[in-house]
Design goal:
Strand order of the largest sheet: 2-1-4-3-5
Strand content: 15-25%
Shape: globular
Number of strands: 5
Order of helices and strands: EHEHEHEHEH
Helix content: 40-55%
Number of helices: 5
Distance between the termini: 29 Å
Largest sheet: 5 strands, parallel
């Protein structure tokens, strides 16, 4: 798809484990998807999460993370710049995040963000990404992180384009 100002639109995939069940979050996510359509081609790929047993041990946790991480890996496009959301990742201000997206748009036409399941992603998957970012050292539900990511992408594009964004 071509954009009059930049000659092309950036493709952004968000590969995430788990479905959004809460209507208020679905509505907000849909609103940001609509807003972002002016700036990029956005594709959210929702993958099923593994059911957690009532008794969880290290072996079962690893097996679940492995299954979910393999599923994530199978949905990453080969030419994409891959960024995982992870507690060990780098923190950005909104302006720094905007600059990062702008800089990436000069070297790639495709960015993929990864959001793992409840137990996170395997070290193997994380080590195969270009970068780890973290929105907070606090733990949030994954559906909320998806909304945070969409909001920050929208804010980033507004900043990039010199447009006001106050809320």
């Amino acid at each position: 798809m071509w954009d009059n100002e930049r000659n092309y639109m950036l493709h952004i995939d968000i590969v995430c484990v788990g479905k959004i069940r809460e209507k208020y979050l679905k509505d907000e996510i849909d609103e940001y998807k609509k807003r972002l359509s002016k700036y990029c081609i956005l594709n959210i790929i929702e993958l099923p999460d593994e059911k957690l047993p009532s008794k969880l041990n290290d072996s079962i946790s690893f097996e679940i993370k492995q299954k979910e991480s393999n599923l994530i890996l199978s949905h990453i496009k080969k030419d994409s710049y891959v960024i995982a959301l992870d507690l060990k990742g780098k923190n950005y201000t909104s302006v720094e995040f905007s600059n990062k997206i702008q800089d990436l748009s000069l070297i790639t036409s495709h960015i993929t963000f990864l959001i793992g399941g409840t137990l996170g992603m395997t070290e193997e998957l994380l080590s195969n990404t270009k970068e780890l970012i973290c929105f907070s050292k606090m733990t949030f539900p994954h559906p909320l992180i998806r909304l945070f990511l969409l909001e920050q992408l929208f804010r980033g594009f507004k900043i990039m384009n010199g447009e006001n964004y106050h809320h």
